[in-house]
């Protein structure tokens, strides 16, 4: 079984992106993997190299290091990623040579209420992940538009989205396998 870590870029408890990760976690075992959600939160102090590394950053780094791959569920805020996610990535990427993201396979998923899903946020996140030389799964893209219509009380109810997530899970497990051989 390929161990994946799921990180939700939203800090909202009732986030549709968290619900998307939970649905993906339920579908991943059929693809030969497990997806464990990071529950340590992303509300970290603003990154500064003048500060000592906070304990939760060390915990997040440890969780990333222990996983064979990472799946980030990213909402789109103002055509980009949420500030808390960017801040967490800034912490995790230091020092660069020892970042647990260095060459770690990453998959991106996202759900939004608008018509374009999370196209811009995912494009921006791919650019950010270039710094850590993190290979990103390119297909299938999981850019869920009108997400509020696909979930009921935090549970995925849309079958086409469920099928897409199952395809993504299989692709992500295979993608990670290419890097762990």
SSE diagram, text form:
Layout: E1 2-8, H1 16-27, E2 33-37, H2 55-66, E3 69-73, H3 83-92, E4 106-111, H4 119-129, E5 142-144, E6 151-152, E7 155-156, H5 159-180
Parallel strand pairs: 1-2, 1-3, 3-4, 4-5
Antiparallel strand pairs: 6-7
Can you put this structure into words, describing what you see?
- Strands 2-1-3-4-5 form a five-stranded parallel β-sheet, with helices on both faces.
- The protein has a domain at 40-109 and 122-160: Flavodoxin domain (Rossmann fold, 3-Layer(aba) Sandwich), CATH 3.40.50.
- The relative contact order is 0.20.
- The protein has helices spanning 16-27, 55-66, 83-92, 119-129, 159-180, and strands at 2-8, 33-37, 69-73, 106-111, 142-144, 151-152, 155-156.
- The chain has 181 residues and is α/β, with parallel strands linked by helices.
- Helix 3 links the parallel strand 3 (69-73) and strand 4.
- The two termini are 14 Å apart.
- 37% of the residues lie in helices and 17% in strands.
- It has five helices and seven strands.
